[in-house]
Design brief:
Strand content: 5-15%
Order of helices and strands: EEHHHHH
Shape: elongated
Distance between the termini: 36 Å
Oligomer: single chain
Helix content: 40-55%
Radius of gyration: 18 Å
Strand order of the largest sheet: 1-2
């Protein structure tokens, strides 16, 4: 929005993505910078099947969901469907 006169706004279309989860990248950066991601991935034997997702993927997706206000496991879907958060690099 571009402010023209006090109390009036000009609205323009934009291709920019918006999210209501703007603070989550800071949490992810903190997890990377303090070494939490590497420590989580170093824990072996948590998952019986070897898949494409690491331990830090599972733990961080649940943690970020709780931080964003999620209450159930299904709420991770909200973050997965968010254009900004889905591009967030959780793993190293």
């Amino acid at each position: 929005m571009i402010r023209q006169k006090p109390g009036s706004f000009k609205v323009e279309k934009s291709n920019s993505s918006l999210t209501s989860f703007a603070g989550l990248p800071i949490i992810s950066d903190l997890a990377h910078s303090c070494g939490l991601i590497k420590q989580l991935n170093a824990i072996g034997g948590l998952w019986k099947r070897q898949r494409d997702y690491s331990t830090s993927d599972h733990v961080m997706s649940l943690a970020l969901t709780l931080i964003a206000g999620g209450e159930r496991l299904d709420d991770t879907r909200l973050l997965k469907n968010d254009a900004i958060v889905s591009d967030l690099n959780i793993t190293a």
